[in-house]
Write a structure and sequence with these properties.
alpha+beta; five-stranded mixed barrel; 2 helices
Length: 122
């Protein structure tokens, strides 16, 4: 996927309602190859069947849901643009909720601290 295709893809989801699968629910601990542990304070998942820039399913951070879920229907309200990676991430929230770019940035910092990224909101 080219850079232009990647950007067009994530922009096409802004404002849309999608059902996402959650493969890393709140509390999930990811053991990294270097031995560090990444604890997920939010639900993290993907849009089933939609491939992102890394040729895996397009990732979505789910904000505004304070308990682990297996799937969720949410509205896409933000994009986490990664300048030093082959993929971008989407940010979904329950219908009717909103977050500022600063709130989204803070919520995804646990993972995005390892990348040169910024958040763009709807």
């Amino acid at each position: 996927m080219t850079y232009e295709e990647r950007k067009a893809q994530v922009y096409s989801y802004l404002g849309k309602t999608v059902t996402i699968g959650i493969d890393r629910p709140i509390g999930f601990v990811h053991e990294k190859k270097d031995g560090t542990r990444l604890n997920y304070p939010i639900n993290y998942g993907y849009i089933p069947g939609v491939l992102g820039g890394d040729d895996e399913e397009l990732d979505v951070y789910l904000l505004g849901v304070d308990h682990p879920v297996e799937s969720y229907t949410c509205r896409i309200v933000g994009i986490v643009h990664r300048k030093n990676d082959v993929e971008d991430k989407l940010v979904g929230v329950p219908e009717g909720m909103s977050f500022t770019a600063a709130e989204m940035t803070e919520a995804v910092h646990f993972q995005e601290q390892y990348y040169d990224s910024y958040v763009e909101t709807l």
